[in-house]
Amino acid sequence: MEHPENDSKYLGLTVNSGVVQPPSVNPYFRRGRRKPLPEAGELVEGILKGDVMMLSRAVTLVESTAPEHYARAQEVIEKCLPYSGNSRRIGLTGVPGAGKSTSIDVFGLHVLKTPGARLAVLAIDPSSERSKGSILGDKTRMEKLSTHPGAFIRPSPSAGSLGGVARKTRETIVLCEAAGYNNIFVETVGVGQSETAVHSMVDFFLLIQVAGTGDELQGIKRGIMEMADGIVINKADGDNIGPTQLAQAQFRSALQLFPPAPSGWKPEVLTYSGYFELGIPEVWDMIDRYFAFVRENGYFDRRRREQARFWMYETIDEQLRNHFYNDPDIAANLVRLESDVESHRRSSFTAAKNILDRYFKTLDK
Ligand code: GDP
């Protein structure tokens, strides 16, 4: 008997049989095993139809570090390439707290007001690991945008070398464009090398700043300012309006000392408030004017051609490095050489030559 209490000797007491728990809440969920990713043809077909699920799965494939996924990912990218390119690619950077998520949310909604507009928001954050919660591109950070049917938000590929993370994002741009996203935002934290990576894959680079620390230009790397096609100072609201205007003046005069940009465009400095949604159309008017300007003078196409070339070399570099460092024999010998070099038994130069000779010999076999 299932419940002894239900025996007739226990008068007045019955126990109902419980609800049978299913063996797993989600029968499709199996620990450590995922649904296999579809074949390249199926993915491409889905992407071209604008199927968001297929796009997501293709991005997962591109981001995968599993060697067996590499060829399939490349096939998907190659097949999408003819359908890509038709978008405005905009990079956004700013230090944590500058208001990137708040701003992307309102900028995104503004962009999506144009009939036919669709927007993909991607991120490059080499420090993030998805399992620990990516700090960038997280859907919860862009509340309004994340529920908009015209927006596709994808967090940064999980941690890896900057080159690797950036390549994956660039490849994801191709897939998004093939799926019909005609506006691409690529977000990055304004603290280091990742700006250069973002700059190498966008048409317009927007630097988001905040006022308030006195010397506004302090701490901003000259290189980052030089890359910016537009500088916008956020949080121009309430008591902060004065300081933002001061910062605007400082940025304007600092920019005058810079050599002219290769685009011929003079970067503009504007103030706005992402939170209170003030000055948003003005920021986008500037970006529209930029696109009209560089399409007219041919710089738009030139920059894209240069970027394509740049990424070819980046990929060659990355593949060469991977091939070298992933060789078990090389890895074992490197450990030995490291200690030789550290203890001055060998010079760095001869150690490098030794291991490279060894590597080139393995290629001859
Ligand atoms: P992120 O780290 O660059 O993505 O910055 P967040 O968008 O998360 O914003 C950081 C903080 O600044 C949050 O507390 C926001 O509410 C606040 N913030 C963002 N934009 C504005 C703005 O325009 N005005 C004011 N006063 N606060 C803002």
> Which fold name is given in CATH as the topology of the largest domain?
Rossmann fold
Bound molecules: guanosine-5'-diphosphate
Uncertain residue segments:
129-134
- Main sheet: strands, sense, barrel: 7 strands, parallel
Q: How many discrete structural domains? A: 3
Order of helices and strands: HHHEHEHEHEHEHEHEHHHH
Number of strands: 7
The percent range for helix content is 40-55%
Q: Name the average pLDDT.
A: 86
What is the CATH architecture term of the largest domain?
3-Layer(aba) Sandwich
Shape: globular
Distance between the termini: 73 Å
How many H/I helical runs? Answer: 13
Percentage of β-strand residues:
5-15%
- Main β-sheet, spatial strand arrangement: 3-2-4-1-5-6-7
From the alpha-carbon coordinates, what is the Rg to the nearest angstrom? Answer: 26 Å
CATH homology superfamily name of the largest domain:
P-loop containing nucleotide triphosphate hydrolases
User: Which structural class fits the helix and strand makeup?
Assistant: alpha/beta
CATH class identity of the largest domain: Alpha Beta
